[in-house]
């Protein structure tokens, strides 16, 4: 991705280098559900195995007490993330204006190490990248992307990071448009299987929005970028994760969609660039 020398967002809150060992403890309803799912489908080793499927966590952590200087490489990655965030701002400001959706409220992205306090509760790096609707901020421990390559088999590369960022911004779009709130309300009135289907539809729509962002950002794409995004999407499909962790899949337990679904919806957004074509719910929820 062509990013050097371009505009960087002022909405990046870089908290990396602030040390401390985070300790996760169940503290809210969604946390309990996630931990139960982990015990049922992934065994007792929850940790970083949950990174691709957890997006909101509560709990407790020790306070961050140490601080260190970032390396040159870490600073460069921070500059890259600030550039990608700026790209999402430019694209979504344009889309909101052209579709009469009102003003786009730009979110903050928080980069952290080990543990972080959020409006959704405290979280550790085990949560992976996630979006918190309570404070409308995206949180990332960038060590996740090493895990994505080494444990989950993704190609890696800078556009894999851009795809994950755009996916989390997709959840911000859903919050602004009221989609997330409607889904949570429906989930409270349905059984577990249908609640999971709603979760899958929500996640696939975020992948679709990531594709829409890529569509409008094509002038900065390089050869191989879309393949990197698709490789990341493939790696974090529910079926791929379950096969890797337990040797078989349990479709009713899916919360993010299969690898094929995630790739398909990202590509639909990328090819069309039309947010009106992102109705994942009518196709997923039975």
TrEMBL record:
Where is there biased composition of kind Polar residues?
1-11
Q: Which domain of life is it from?
A: Bacteria
| Membrane topology type | Single-pass membrane protein
Q: Which keywords does UniProt give here? A: Membrane, Transmembrane, Transmembrane helix
Q: Where does it localize?
A: Membrane
KW Plastid (keyword) present = no
Chief place of localization: membrane
Q: Which Pfam families match?
A: Zn_peptidase
Keyword Transmembrane helix appears in the UniProt entry: yes
Which region ranges are annotated with the description Disordered?
1-22
Alphabetical list of InterPro entries matching this protein: Uncharacterised_pept_Zn_put
The name on file for this protein is: Zinc metallopeptidase
């Amino acid at each position: 991705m062509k990013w050097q020398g371009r505009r960087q967002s002022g909405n990046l809150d870089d908290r990396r280098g602030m040390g401390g060992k985070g300790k996760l403890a169940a503290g809210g309803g969604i946390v309990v559900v996630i931990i139960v799912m982990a015990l049922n489908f992934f065994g007792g080793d929850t940790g970083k195995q949950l990174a691709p499927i957890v997006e909101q966590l509560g709990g407790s952590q020790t306070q961050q007490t140490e601080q260190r200087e970032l390396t040159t490489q870490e600073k460069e990655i921070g500059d890259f993330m600030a550039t990608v965030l700026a790209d999402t701002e430019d694209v979504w400001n344009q889309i909101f204006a052209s579709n009469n959706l009102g003003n786009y409220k730009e979110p903050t992205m928080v980069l952290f190490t080990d543990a972080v306090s959020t409006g959704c509760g405290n979280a550790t790096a085990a949560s992976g990248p996630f979006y918190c609707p309570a404070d409308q901020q995206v949180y990332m421990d960038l060590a996740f992307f090493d895990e994505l390559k080494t444990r989950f088999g993704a190609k890696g590369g800078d556009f894999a990071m851009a795809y994950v960022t755009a996916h989390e911004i997709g959840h911000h779009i859903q919050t602004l448009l009221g989609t997330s709130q409607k889904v949570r309300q429906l989930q409270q009135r349905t059984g577990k299987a249908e609640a999971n289907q709603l979760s899958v539809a929500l996640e696939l729509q975020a992948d679709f929005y990531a594709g829409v962002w890529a569509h409008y950002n094509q002038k900065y794409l390089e050869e191989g970028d879309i393949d990197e995004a698709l490789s990341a999407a493939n790696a974090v499909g529910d079926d791929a994760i379950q096969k890797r962790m337990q040797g078989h899949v349990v479709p009713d337990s899916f919360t993010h969609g299969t690898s094929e679904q995630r790739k398909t919806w990202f590509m639909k957004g990328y090819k069309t660039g039309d947010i009106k074509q992102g109705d994942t719910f009518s196709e997923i929820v039975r």
